[in-house]
Design goal:
mainly beta, 11 strands, globular, 7-stranded mixed sheet
Length: about 120
Amino acid sequence: QVQLVESGGGLVQPGGSLRLSCAASGSIFSIYAMGWFRQVPGKQRESVAAITSGGSTNYGDSVKGRFTISRDNAKNTVYLQMDRLKPEDTAVYYCNTQYRLGIPGDYWGQGTQVTVSS
């Protein structure tokens, strides 16, 4: 079993920044990759960013160059640094384990709301 607890969402103005955190516990040795998907009502679920246990990363086209995913092995935590945020980034962001980059695995965090608005 893997437990994922995410935090860091909130309200930010366009052009601002937020950092999401996702702390993993349990059988973390089995995790190949972790990342975030986001969900907007009426739109298809979208892969945002992911990082493998070896440090390889992947980003969705809409966030590439603005978002950075990283990891802290000592804290068993991955981070999503979101810069130059746009209103279109408004969504619920879900941390998850992944079988491959962009392919959801079995475990999901509770979700955190990110709202970009002036």
